[in-house]
Amino acid sequence: MTALATSPDHLKPANGQCFGFAFTHLLISRNFKMTVPRKIIHAGIFFLFTLLIVFWIGRHIPPFQSPDENAHLLRADMIAHGQWLLQSKNHDNGREGGMADASFISFVRSLLNISGVEGDKTLTPDLLDKAENMRWSNEDSFQNTAGTGYYLPIIYTPHAIGLFISRHLNLSMLGSYELTRALVVATALGIFTLAFSIRTPNALTLVLLLTPMSLFQLASPTIDGISFALTMLLISLWLSLSSPENEKNDKSRLQQEFWLYICIFVLCTARTNMLSTLLIPLVILKQQYSRKRAYSIALLYAVTLGWITFATLTTYDARVVRSMSSLQIMVNYITNPQEFFTLLQNTLRNTEIKKFYQESYIGILGWLDTPIPKNSVSILSAAIILILIFTALTTRWREALPTRITAFSVGGISAILIFFALAVTWNLYPAAKIDGVQGRYFIIPTLFLAAAFGHIKSQAVKYKPLEIIAVTAFGIYSIHALLTTLSAQYKM
Asked: Where are the transmembrane segments (predicted)?
């Protein structure tokens, strides 16, 4: 929290109105001007309060129960001892994996025995007891993690630090995992705290971040929680830059714009479907053109697209065997866009697929083996729709209309790019429909869509009493549904 204490004025809550999540609002008075220490105290309250909640949730989730968590942490272990990029196993394919600690690999594989619909959840207590007595072997062996080859190593910084410290302290496997999870969760919540200090999110955004799926991913040491947090920081910086209040302070504007570009770069190289965020710098350039800004944006485009091109061309993923490469399929869809959109239309016409997207957006947890009850999905979905309608009706749509259109465009294009990315990397060609898409992939795009609602110009949102009640009730019910489901599944 020291960073918040020393950050410039534009990074602090305006007029004492920011409370982050709705829970924190109950602890903070809204009708007084805070002094600098109070601002820091309130940010600290939010951080600690949400940290306790997420840690509490995490105690109900065994290791490696989030999809692809095993691959993410194996990749982090590779980075922790100096292997920044994936390597080829036989030197005749592209990058597909690397060297990880043998004990850590054994730990990962053992916990995967309880994953999936066929996993035996009754093994959980025994496996955790064994993990408490297992130490680092300091003997490495090759492990395939091709699915992570598309991600820039920087997104794994907290994961790698946690595993690096754990290895040097020779902690148990379970202790190493918990330390790493703590660092990842704390990093994500620290970014959230900064984002909400810059700009207060609207009620619709809060409930999207409080769904069982969002909370489950935030409590797991994958890259999803950090990606959610970076998205909120990106949105906060962008909307702050769009505010007339920011136009007078050139120095603070330059600082915000620099960190905005960093967020875009990290997010795009961790979530390729977020390439739509590259529209935001163009909007800024159009609003306030300068040659220096144009060069900066060109550099951002070059390094972002350069990494994605490099990763796509060099990563070898043997999980999907096809007669055509990802690059060839991509070129086919780009040169024949009607073919892709027909495929997309066929996918979205499928009633069962759309139902799966809805349910997995709210909460088909784990490796699609831990669904929250269907009545809970219905209640939470209805609540989101009601809050959406209320927010839409109270939004002054003519205010900052270009910014709202950009937010809708970024979110909408990002959602389409999810299907495009899966069609190119995960599906055969030609395909009847696009397989592999899960509802949780749409959390980040919908955060951009939600940002288009509510106040744009004002950095301090005054929540209506009804909004406070609705968000608080939504959060309590969501956490109850999540913990009840996890307790029944894993008996922890």
From this structure: 40-58, 179-198, 218-239, 259-285, 297-316, 376-393, 405-426, 438-456, 468-490
Contact by Cβ (8 Å): 211, 478:
yes
pLDDT value for 391: 94
Closest CA to 371 of 385, 386, 355, 387: 355
Which H/E stretch holds residue 100? Answer: strand 97-101
Mean pLDDT of the chain: 89
pLDDT class of 249 with cuts at 50, 70, 90: low
The confidence score (pLDDT) of residue 36 equals 47
**pLDDT, tens digit (0-9, with 9 covering 90-100), for 327-357:** 889 999 999 999 999 999 999 999 999 999 9
Burial of 81 (0-12, 13-18, 19+ CB in 10 A): middle
Closest CA to 211 of 457, 485, 11, 10: 485
Residue spans of beta strands (DSSP E) within 347-404: 364-365, 370-371
Half-sphere exposure of 339 (CA within 13 A, CB side): 13
Does pTM top 0.70 for this prediction? yes
Taking only Cα atoms into account, the Rg of the chain, rounded to an integer number of angstroms, comes to: 22
Residue 143: strand pairing partners: 98
**DSSP notation for 413-452:** HHHHHHHHHHHHHTS-SS-SS-----GGGGHHHHHHHHHT
Return all residues near 407 (Cβ < 8 A) that are at least 6 apart.
235, 448, 449, 451, 452
154 class by beta-carbon count within 10 Å (0-12 exposed, 13-18 middle, 19+ buried) = middle
Measuring CA to CA, which residue among 81, 365, 329, 65 is closest to residue 220? 65
pLDDT at 170: 94
The helix (run of H) or strand (run of E) holding residue 101 is strand 97-101
The first and second tokens of residue 144, run together, are: 């395939």
Backbone angles phi and psi of 84, in degrees to 5:
-75, -35
Q: Which conformational region is residue 61 in: left (phi greater than 0), alpha (psi within -120 to 50 degrees), or beta?
A: beta
Q: Which residues contact 138 (CB under 8 A, 6 or more apart)?
A: 101, 167
Per-residue pLDDT tens digits for 85-108:
999 988 777 889 999 999 999 999
Largest CA distance in the chain: 66
Amino acid at 86: L
| CA gap 274, 417 in Å, rounded | 8
Q: Residue 374: pLDDT band by 50, 70, 90 thresholds?
A: very high
Rounded Cα distance between 239 and 205, Å, is: 14
